[in-house]
């Protein structure tokens, strides 16, 4: 049984992620933008679709899920379902959920927080992909066929 050791980077990425999540849910009313009602409600549609993608990915991972980028012990590379749409469907779902809800709430501050979240997930996924490439020989081929995010 191979046990993957977590590094300080794993803890840093997860700590930053939760800090950004917490910031997102602070009720900022400083700067609001006005957008057409149909566009606001399309934000809820985007959020709903993102939740479906994220839930599908979570169900596919089953008990092999971890908030840390280091691959779990005895994990396997999943390339079907949600993982055929995106190499990181949970990150994608979280960003699109935040973006959709941001549009619905007409919040410029939440849009900035969502951009920070996307940036974090970009760098977290790069680190994770380096580790996945070291763990799974077929990962490079998977990278060529599937986008990082949607």
Automatic annotation (TrEMBL):
Q: How does it sit in the membrane?
A: Multi-pass membrane protein
Q: Which keywords does this chain's UniProt record carry?
A: Membrane, Transmembrane, Transmembrane helix
Q: What is its main location?
A: membrane
List the Gene3D superfamilies hit by this protein, alphabetically: 1.20.120.1630
- Top-rank taxon: Bacteria
Q: Where in the cell is it found?
A: Endomembrane system
Q: Which residues cross the membrane?
A: 12-35, 41-61, 107-123
Q: Which Pfam families match?
A: PEMT (PF04191)
Q: Which GO terms describe its cellular component?
A: endomembrane system
From the Swiss-Prot or TrEMBL record, give the protein name: Isoprenylcysteine carboxyl methyltransferase (ICMT) family protein
């Amino acid at each position: 049984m191979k046990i993957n050791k977590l590094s300080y980077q794993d803890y840093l990425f997860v700590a930053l992620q939760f800090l950004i999540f917490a910031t997102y849910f602070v009720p900022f009313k400083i700067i609001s933008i006005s957008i057409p009602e149909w566009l606001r409600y399309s934000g809820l549609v985007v959020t709903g679709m993102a939740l479906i993608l994220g839930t599908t990915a979570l169900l596919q991972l089953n008990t092999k899920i971890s908030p840390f980028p280091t691959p779990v012990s005895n994990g396997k590379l999943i390339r079907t379902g949600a993982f055929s749409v995106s190499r990181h469907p949970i990150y994608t779902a979280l960003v699109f959920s935040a973006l959709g809800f941001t549009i619905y709430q007409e919040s410029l501050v939440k849009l900035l927080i969502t951009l920070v979240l996307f940036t974090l997930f970009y760098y977290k996924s790069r680190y994770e992909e380096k580790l996945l490439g070291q763990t799974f020989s077929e990962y490079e081929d998977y990278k060529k066929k599937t986008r990082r995010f949607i």
